Amino acid sequence: MKQFIYLFAVAIIFTACSSNVNANKKMAGDFLDLALSANPLDAQTLTHPDFKFVFMGNTEISNIPYDREAYFDYWLPEVVGKLLPTGIILKTTDMIADDDGVAVIMEGDAEGINGEYDNKYVFVYKFKDGKIFSIHEYNSDLLVATRLYKNKLVPSD
Q1: Residue 138, helix vs strand vs coil
Q2: Which of 22, 57, 115, 120 is deepest in the core (most CB within 10 A)?
Q3: Which residues pair with 128 in a beta bridge?
Q4: In this predicted structure, what is the pLDDT of residue 156?
Q5: How far, in Å, CA of 57 to CA of 119, rounded?
Q6: Owning domain of residue 16
Q7: How many CA atoms lie less than 13 Å away from 108 in the CB half-sphere?
Q8: How far, in Å, CA of 22 to CA of 70, rounded?
């Protein structure tokens, strides 16, 4: 009987963890679709009130933490919207998840302000209270610098 109770408890814990992982994966997968849609504020309902976003890298737009309001009111329309005025098509190629977070690996296809801009991305999501607590975006900042900002590569000595 003890073995049955133990196995039952393990099954409940595994099911709860598995459903949490699946819920996190779904939320992460839905977030950018909503954020980059015609109504990006629909994505805001998926975020925690203390939400933070950081675009990682070594460019002029990197490593600046944006809170929930700044992400939706500034980052999406003023940064992404102006750099990619016709939008971007993101295709998920993989997801890695656990109870606390999801890494979404994506490929992007877009026309940037200076021509074709195709990049690869990893979005690292952390969750709190069933909501998206933070996102760190990683991509080739070299492509951002050269294709979107027209920076030139200069050999170093």
Answers
A1: strand
A2: 57
A3: 131
A4: 78
A5: 14
A6: 2-148
A7: 26
A8: 28
Whether 157 is in a domain gets the answer no
Q: What is the DSSP string of 57-90?
A: SSSTTSS--EEHHHIIIIIIIIIIHHHSTT-EEE
CATH number at residue 46: 3.10.450.50
- Number of separate domains in the chain: 1
In order along its 157 residues, the chain shows pLDDT tens digits of 556 555 444 444 444 445 799 999 999 999 999 999 988 999 999 999 999 999 999 988 999 999 999 999 999 999 999 999 999 999 999 999 999 999 999 999 999 998 899 999 999 999 999 999 999 999 998 889 888 888 887 777 7
Q: Report if residue 88 sits inside a domain.
A: yes
Structure tokens at 15: 């099911």
